[in-house]
Amino acid sequence: MTVSSAGKNTLPKVSIIIVTFNAAGCLQKCLNSIYKQTYPFLNIIVIDGASTDGTIDLLKANEDKLRYWQSEPDKGIYYAMNKGLEHISGDRVYFLGADDELFDDFSEMLYQISDPSAIYYGRVIIEGKKTPGPVSAYKHAKDTICHQAIVYPTAVFKKYKYNTKYPITADHLLNIQCWRDKDFHFKFIDLTIAEFNYTGLSSMKIDTLFKKDQPALIFKYHGPLIWFRYRFRLLKMRLNPAKYQPKSGV
Q: 77, 111, 217, 241: most buried by Cβ count inside 10 Å?
């Protein structure tokens, strides 16, 4: 998309937060996918968890293109994301995994952002398949939206931070909170903006504490009808577990 000089003055500035730990084998490819974007206002923030594999050397080699980076021990992914949020600037925030890759349509999506209260989301590729969309309230409560599909208003993080009680799926809780919040609404744009690496921590393990709390969280933020439907699904899963094996593309 070609944008005039006057038009560029109205474009939102976007902070991209990347959390890394021993990511030397994949981080440069991720960064390169950001560098090739045509969107002009991208600030890259990298929070590293004291890597020992060469990631720090890679960050030093790229630091002229990074708004901010640091490397120190942390207590997990969402602790690091919250630290990254302390360094954001501008109007929008996006989270990208060190082993993920942006597509050209990421820029196209950013050019279409116009509603300051909208949480925009598109599609990503997971295991060769596009994620679905738009997402219903029930689908959102049950599975949420892939983190790498979402571009948040900075205002979200003036109200919320990631709850580090949940080490793997704190983003699910954040999205549930935002779905309920009258200051925000979710808006789907049918573009495929990234490839999500399905071999990361969130894909390989289950956040058992979140799963335990999920029914109560759904009741609190989505109400009794969605909660009842979710509880009925849990009952069906117990009666016929083979039918409800996890699938990619959430």
A: 77
For 93-122, b where at least 16 C-beta lie within 10 A, e where not — what string?
bbbbbbbbbbbebbbbbbbebeeeebbbbb
DSSP symbol at 40: S
**H or E element, residue 19:** strand 14-20
- Backbone φ and ψ for 118, nearest 5 degrees, come out as -85, 140
Per-residue pLDDT of the chain (250 residues; tens, 9 = 90+): 655 444 566 899 999 999 999 999 999 999 999 999 999 999 999 999 999 999 999 999 999 999 999 999 999 999 999 999 999 999 999 999 999 999 999 999 999 999 999 999 999 999 999 998 899 999 999 999 999 999 999 999 999 999 999 999 999 999 999 999 999 999 999 999 999 986 655 545 788 999 999 999 999 999 999 999 999 888 877 777 666 555 443 3
Are the C-beta atoms of 11 and 40 separated by less than 8 Å?
A: yes
- Whole-prediction pTM value? 0.90
How far, in Å, CA of 150 to CA of 123, rounded?
Answer: 9
Residues contacting residue 16 through CB under 8 Å, at least 6 positions apart = 34, 42, 43, 44, 45, 94, 95, 96
* Contact yes or no for 68/83 (Cβ under 8 A): no
Domains, in order of start, for the chain: 5-244 (3.90.550.10)
Eight-class DSSP state of 22: S
